[in-house]
Amino acid sequence: MLLEAIRSTVIETARRARRDRLVHSTFGNFSIRDRDTGYVCITPSGLDYDSLTPSDIVVVDLDGRTVDGNRRPSIETPLHTEVYKRRKDVMAVVHTHSAYATAWACCRKDVPVVLAEVAAAAGGPIKCAPYRPMGSSELAVVTADALGDSAIVLMASHGVLAVGPTMDSAYNNAVIAEEGARIALYANLIGEAVAISEEECVSLVRIARDKYGQDA
Ligand SMILES: [Zn+2]
């Protein structure tokens, strides 16, 4: 089977996201780009994550054409491929409907940068992309525009997109989006939440890139 190990990782990530309550039911979608072929392994549309086997994960090219697999790929495949086309550094994409981040997205508000992890991942506030219908190529374009060079972006009245150089990194960024949204909500309730300065955001991005975690 083509790219079986990557397809298995996509399944494990989808199940983990449901366990961690970043998605419910069959919502959300997950993909990894293969470094050698450039193909993208993405979750199928509307199948229970518990029932998935590697052959259910669809392998597509960057134009969204199926290379391997019998299932229909996620409705948001254009969103994933649009980001992969624009961002050579991105090797994994996670799309969730996590509650706190989506609540901000339903108000069509950027999440203010009051939490250091958000500053490090987004380089500033988590921007909210304009509303477009789910699954549309317009949604793919406006979301990739709003994402820019960041690792996380909100999708108006819909959810969250997180990206990274590995699936662990993209997943962690999806968690940071949710945690950042939750903390910003409570900080605003307490009142007078302090935004992290642009200069400090730049510094935190650098620290996260150069110093966090273990050397490979
Ligand atoms: Zn969605």
CATH-level-2 architecture: 3-Layer(aba) Sandwich
What is the rounded Rg?
17 Å
Q: Please report the distance between the alpha carbons of the first and last residues.
A: 29 Å
> Can you tell me the overall shape?
globular
Major sheet size, sense and barrel closure: 8 strands, mixed
Whole-number tally of structural domains: 1
SSE diagram, text form:
Elements: H1 4-19, E1 29-33, E2 40-42, E3 58-60, E4 66-68, H2 77-86, E5 92-96, H3 99-106, H4 116-122, E6 128-129, H5 137-147, E7 152-155, E8 159-164, H6 167-190, H7 198-210
Parallel strand pairs: 6-7
Antiparallel strand pairs: 1-2, 1-5, 2-3, 3-4, 5-8, 7-8
The site of zinc ion has 6 residues, from loops.
Question: Could you explain how this protein is built, in words?
Answer:
- With 216 residues, the protein is an alpha+beta fold.
- It has one domain (4-210): 3-Layer(aba) Sandwich (L-fuculose-1-phosphate Aldolase), CATH 3.40.225.
- The protein contains 7 helices and 8 strands.
- It has an 8-stranded mixed β-sheet, sandwiched between helices.
- Helix 3 (99-106) packs across helix 6 (167-190) and helix 4 packs across helix 7 (198-210).
- The radius of gyration is 17 Å and the shape is globular.
- It starts with a helix and ends in a 6-residue tail after the last helix.
- The relative contact order is 0.15.
- It binds zinc ion.
- Zinc ion binds at residues 76, 95, 97, 134, 158-159.
